[in-house]
Amino acid sequence: MTFSPEWDDIYRGSKQLSVWPWSDLVSYVYRHARPDDGFRRVLECGCGAGANIPFFVKIGVEYFGVEGSSYIVERLHEAFPELRQHIVVGDFTQTIPFDGTFDLAVDRGSLTLNTTTAIRQTLALVFHRVRQGGKLIGIDWFSTSHSDAGAGDVLDSWTRTNIPKGHLSGLGATHFSDQSHLVDLLTTAGFVLERLEHKVIESVLPDDGPRLATWNFVAVKP
After folding, report:
1. Is the pLDDT of residue 13 over 70?
2. Domains in the chain, ordered, with CATH?
3. Percent of the chain beyond pLDDT 70?
């Protein structure tokens, strides 16, 4: 199992408990994968503390989530008892533990917290489980332009761990992509890119903050 045990400890310590839907993901779904356009069965890889679940419930899709932390899944079952069979503990780098195909798969910053090999495995699994014409929306995949891209210890050419400080400290494997590498990851899995955006946030005042750089994308199964 490649799920990082650090995340179960993080959730048990009441950290990273985001509860508001991520605005970029909401925007991308409305712009590129609306339920009215046939994107009604949705898989989320790494649903975490469930920030995006209320959004998907509100727009009336059939939601499924796979998450590696047993602790946080128990909390999600308490919060969303009607989704108990649709939110499960699992390692999405190894298997997608649901039957059938999906119209849309979404990931907000979970796949990017894995090694390159694990990401490739996951993308291949997701591609297999998304219907023809279905999409994968990725939000906040870390970029090599991020100020912490060279920090910590090397796991592989694109992945670091033990980042010593900042918002990526203590998260385990953290993967950083440049444009060509990200395109290779997606196209090797079989996807065709429909949209790719690079988001950079720099602290001006004070000017000693990190440079945050991430990728958002929409990929289609042809």
Report:
1. no
2. 5-220 (3.40.50.150)
3. 91
Partnered with residue 193 across adjacent β-strands are 219
How far is residue 164 from each of residues 40, 148, 168, 210, 214, measured CA to CA in Å?
41, 9, 8, 13, 20
Q: What is the DSSP string of 151-167?
A: -SEEEETTEEE---SST
pLDDT tens across 61-87, in order? 999 999 988 889 999 999 999 999 999
Distance, CA of 154 to CA of 151 (rounded, Å):
9
User: In sequence order, what E strands does 26-182 have?
Assistant: 41-45, 62-67, 87-89, 102-108, 130-142, 153-156, 159-161, 174-175
pTM for the full predicted model = 0.93
